[in-house]
Amino acid sequence: MPQRLGRTLLLPGAPKILGYAAVVGQKEGEGPLGQEFDKIYEDTHMGQDSWEKAESQLVQHAVSVALSKAALTPDQIHYMFTGDLLNQNVATTFGVRDISIPLFGVFSACASMSETLGLCAMFIEGGLADHTLAATSSHFCTAERQFRMPLEYGGQRTSTSQWTVTGAGALVVAREGAGPSIHAVTVGKILDLGIKDAANMGAAMAPAACDTLMTFFSDTNTGPGDFDLILTGDLGVVGSRLLRELLEREGIDLGTRYADCGMLIYDLNHQDVAAGGSGCGCSATVLCSRILNKLNSGELGRVLFVATGALMSPTATQQGQSIPGIAHLVELHGK
Amino acid sequence: MPQRLGRTLLLPGAPKILGYAAVVGQKEGEGPLGQEFDKIYEDTHMGQDSWEKAESQLVQHAVSVALSKAALTPDQIHYMFTGDLLNQNVATTFGVRDISIPLFGVFSACASMSETLGLCAMFIEGGLADHTLAATSSHFCTAERQFRMPLEYGGQRTSTSQWTVTGAGALVVAREGAGPSIHAVTVGKILDLGIKDAANMGAAMAPAACDTLMTFFSDTNTGPGDFDLILTGDLGVVGSRLLRELLEREGIDLGTRYADCGMLIYDLNHQDVAAGGSGCGCSATVLCSRILNKLNSGELGRVLFVATGALMSPTATQQGQSIPGIAHLVELHGK
């Protein structure tokens, strides 16, 4: 049975991650984690006739490999939780359309991987399901044209801008079995400090990550020193620095055990990605490759996975709205 | 503890709906349910400077009234589940931005009210929360310009088209207390029979409603005669007729106890809405007014609420994709 400590829900049953997969594009394959992905597509179209369909192909591929690694068939999965950045979630919807599993669509922008992972684990702990599946995705080309400019326009990028990861991650959670385990979930509240620069998402999301981490540390009476890794989703260079500063003001030093998926997935010195990677696919593919690999091997013990989302749309930005941020936290333990 | 029967999850703890509210626009206020709404805004802008902000205002208002009727404050709600039709869910996100409750964003298009209601009830039954909140919305003007044409264009409407409801519904679910109760949830799978006409959503969604209802009847060994009302979300005239036909082919007669929120909310003979109402706000405002009123008074006993969603986007339609449908079912009992 789940136990509540303030805003944090402890999961004493420790649901297990039985299988996971990360499928990416060429640029991600050329980055530091290249060897750890399940599949690298050389072609940005992944054999499809549009980038949106290509993103769906990434999702379908990741789900299929995750199921296979978990040695489960779709009819054994009680629910799946999926989300992406595209209008009306079409990347994941069309990606899982032919996989016959009851579906909960979710949206937390780039925080969707921790929302879906948290829901998967909570459903298992609450006895609502025996097996659950999470999947999220993003694609540089679909995101650019939807959120910013047509690619053909060749718009200049600012130093605070981030590069949307082309990739999908999927994982399967179960009550029993061998694999990394999930011990706590802290669901984020919306925080909006008035940032309006859509080319500086890290700054919009850092306060939410700070709030969720502070809440978790306070609820569980822990601090950064109790964890081997504190991993945000896609704050990038600017947002990560801000998060450190915000926490330092509260007397919390993240020290050397902090990392950000957006800074791990690319070689920031050589891959021309400005402030790092971003997108639902960023935290999803980093989690579902190196991080879960290290939790599986025991190289990592206790990890806090804190994906952040910027809950804006181009329409909201054009109407002068600021960018609300959210961050959901999931505590993972090594096998 | 929840009990599983096939794809259906029974909730023996019978979570209760403690408070609910429906807030609508003028056209909805002039319809047959006008007397039962909590607030009717005469102005389509609801005092805001854009229709998107107006839709957020509807959400904020509905959530505020639902909390007040439940006699609860935001800090007593462990989680809220919200969703709408706008790109990146901005109507609900900005509507609840200032309400400090941990947030799970969801997306099932027009099925979002049954997804959020189902999640609220499942979280209570699984011991994951003491109080949960659901809210969804739509607005005729935001939906028209996003999914179809600028309003100023004055596009012709086909006889199969539906009128997006301007309204928001919100409700609060709890383990204890007096109110209509929730007894079962059947989460839908995606069904796509190849319909490509974005002006005929009812036809795209009817097969999903048929599949979910058939699954529920089979799982629970019940039939339409066991319920006082079987209520779909926004199939409209065309989709409702199709649903009846699809079920008749399987030997199931919906009889006189079937209704559709899209046909209840407007006077179809006099309000010029073609095949009826649609949108997240359609099922949300009908559920959170007349239906819950009648469950509250005991006038209705057992009700199946089956909101359906068309999981498409304009981009997907332009790329030649067919329209996947989904339907989530929630069984409600009168007080």
List keywords for this structure.
homodimer; 335 residues; alpha/beta; seven-stranded mixed beta sheet; six-stranded mixed beta sheet
Present the secondary structure layout.
The structure is a homodimer of 335-residue chains.
Chain A: E1 3-5, E2 8-10, E3 16-24, H1 26-29, E4 39-40, H2 51-69, E5 79-84, H3 90-96, E6 103-105, H4 112-125, E7 131-138, H5 140-147, E8 163-164, E9 167-174, E10 181-186, H6 201-220, E11 229-232, H7 236-249, E12 258-260, H8 261-264, E13 277-278, H9 280-297, E14 302-310, H10 314-318, E15 325-333
Parallel strand pairs in A: 3-4, 5-6, 5-7, 8-13, 11-12, 11-14
Antiparallel strand pairs in A: 1-2, 2-10, 3-9, 7-9, 10-15, 14-15
Helix pairs in contact in A: 2-3, 6-7
Give the strand tally of chain A.
Answer: 15
Question: Which outline of chain A best applies?
Answer: globular
State the assembly state of the protein chains.
homodimer
How large is the count of helical segments of chain A? 10
The portion of residues assigned to helices of chain A is 25-40%
Largest interface, by Cβ-Cβ below 8 angstroms: which chains and how many residues each?
A-B, 57 and 56 residues
Show unreliable segments of chain A: none
- Which structural class do the helices and strands of chain A define? alpha/beta
How far apart the termini of chain A lie comes to: 21 Å
Rg of chain A over CA atoms, rounded to whole Å, is: 18 Å
Beta-strand fraction estimate of chain A:
15-25%
Major beta-sheet overview of chain A: 7 strands, mixed
Average pLDDT over all residues of chain A? 96
Strand order of the largest sheet of chain A: 1-2-10-15-14-11-12
Name the helix and strand elements of chain A from N-terminus to C-terminus, one letter apiece. EEEHEHEHEHEHEEEHEHEHEHEHE
